[in-house]
């Protein structure tokens, strides 16, 4: 009898316990500052450039070899706008291979890389693992947008613990130049008309003239080999920066965006015409950046075949026949030439700008549902009704 009552007491005690589950992703646990998701690069707001110098220490010490970096001479050094003689030009991290060991953070000499300790560092799900290859723009975005409020390095915590045990004053936390406070200080400099970066010293003789000449000569060359998608991304980034600058200076943001768009189109076409009217710039066959090089044509053909195969499987048709049709359509779009032939002018059916696949449409719909749910919860409305409206708009029951 005593055991029976003891069991009932245990059962009843669980009924009055606080719940331990959360309605993720509407509600999220507060993450500790020591947690780590994936590595990101930090941004130096005082000099408007990454902290990374491309020294390759993290690349050499990575146990899974998921990092690749390219170093270049820093163009801001002769202008006196930076004290870094070298700067990173390109940086890639394959998040699909990264094991989040934190070694890259521990060996970095310049406070240039840190493990993202926010929820944004965890939410990198993708349909294709190739989308987990992050470039320099992706890796610096979290820091540039001020989404790293407390970047953490183990050495900082160790030094603080030692100072506390020895009765000394705790040292200042690391990565001060990459924190949101530095970003706010940059906005204040811009509002005061001092520019985004700090002028460290006088420019070297002839540096300004050489920089202007190089910028004028290299602008068209830089944009010539870019795809329509990358050109659009560059234009949107320029418009965003113009909007932020106009807001900080108290000007009309829409007028600033229009000016930035006009200036970008002029730099692309040479006369202010839209990119679509100018057409792609010619490039040597097989050259770096050539949109019709053999490797890129082969990649577009394989993408078209893969999408045709997936669509055929989803519709219950013969996937091999669908692949043959896609290959024939691709070669026909190139004028009958083999898919790997250089210098072809036309693009395949799966090129950028065509209708998105069913998988991408589903992802877009799910993203809109999630945003509608978040907005409804924030406004105190019914989240299920908001999701139902989005599904009705997409024609989904």
- In total, how many domains does the architecture comprise? 4
| Total of DSSP H or I helical runs spanning 4+ residues | 14
Query: For the record, what CATH class of the largest domain applies?
Result: Alpha Beta
Helix-and-strand structural type: mainly alpha
Radius of gyration: 26 Å
CATH topology of the largest domain: Alpha-Beta Plaits
Q: What is the helix/strand order?
A: HEEEHEEHEEHHHHHHHHHHH
- Mean pLDDT across all amino acids: 81
The biggest beta sheet, please? 3 strands, antiparallel
Strand content: 5-15%
What's the β-strand tally? 7
Walk me through what this model shows:
The chain is mainly alpha-helical and 397 residues long. The chain folds into four domains: 39-165, Alpha-Beta Plaits (2-Layer Sandwich); 226-278; 290-353, no CATH class; 358-393. The protein contains 14 helices and seven strands. It has a three-stranded antiparallel sheet with strand order 4-5-7. A two-stranded antiparallel sheet has the order 1-6. Strands 2-3 form a two-stranded antiparallel ribbon. Strand 2 (43-44) and strand 3 form a beta hairpin. Helix 8 packs antiparallel against helix 9, helix 11 (294-315) packs antiparallel against helix 12 and helix 13 (358-379) runs antiparallel to helix 14. The longest helix is centred in the middle third of the chain and has 22 residues, at 228-249. The protein is globular and about 95 Å long. The protein starts with a helix and ends with a helix.
């Amino acid at each position: 009898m005593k055991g029976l009552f003891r069991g009932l007491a245990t059962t009843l005690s669980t009924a009055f316990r606080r719940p331990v589950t959360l309605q993720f992703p509407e509600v999220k646990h507060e993450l500790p500052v020591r947690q780590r998701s994936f590595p990101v690069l930090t941004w130096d707001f005082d000099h408007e450039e990454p902290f990374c110098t491309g020294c390759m220490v993290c690349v050499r010490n990575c146990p899974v070899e998921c990092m690749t970096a390219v170093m270049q001479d820093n163009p801001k050094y002769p202008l006196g706008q930076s004290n870094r003689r070298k700067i990173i030009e390109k940086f890639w991290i394959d998040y699909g291979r990264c094991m989040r060991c934190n070694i890259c953070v521990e060996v970095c000499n310049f406070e240039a890389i840190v493990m993202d300790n926010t929820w944004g560092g965890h939410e990198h799900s993708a349909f294709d693992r190739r989308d987990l290859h992050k470039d320099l723009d992706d890796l610096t975005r979290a820091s540039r947008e001020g989404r790293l409020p407390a970047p953490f390095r183990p050495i900082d915590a160790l030094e603080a613990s030692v100072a506390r045990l020895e009765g000394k004053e705790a040292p200042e936390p690391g990565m001060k130049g990459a924190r949101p406070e530095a970003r706010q200080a940059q906005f204040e400099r811009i509002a005061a008309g001092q520019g985004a970066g700090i002028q460290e010293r006088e420019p070297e003789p002839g540096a300004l003239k050489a920089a202007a000449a190089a910028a004028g000569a290299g602008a068209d060359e830089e944009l010539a080999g870019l795809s329509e998608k990358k050109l659009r991304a560059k234009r949107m980034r320029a418009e965003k920066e113009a909007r932020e600058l106009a807001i900080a200076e108290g000007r009309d943001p829409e007028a600033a965006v229009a000016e930035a768009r006009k200036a970008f189109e002029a730099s692309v076409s040479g006369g202010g015409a839209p990119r679509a009217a100018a057409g792609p710039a010619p490039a040597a066959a097989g050259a770096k950046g050539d949109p019709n090089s053999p490797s890129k044509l082969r990649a577009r053909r394989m993408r078209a075949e893969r999408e045709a195969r997936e669509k055929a499987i989803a519709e219950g048709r013969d996937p091999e026949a669908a692949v043959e049709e896609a290959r024939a359509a691709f070669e026909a779009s190139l004028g009958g030439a083999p898919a790997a032939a250089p210098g072809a002018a036309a693009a395949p059916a799966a090129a950028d700008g065509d209708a998105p696949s069913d998988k991408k449409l589903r992802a877009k719909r799910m993203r809109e549902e999630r945003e509608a749910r978040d907005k409804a919860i924030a406004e105190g409305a019914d989240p299920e009704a908001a999701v139902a409206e989005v599904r009705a708009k997409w024609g989904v029951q």
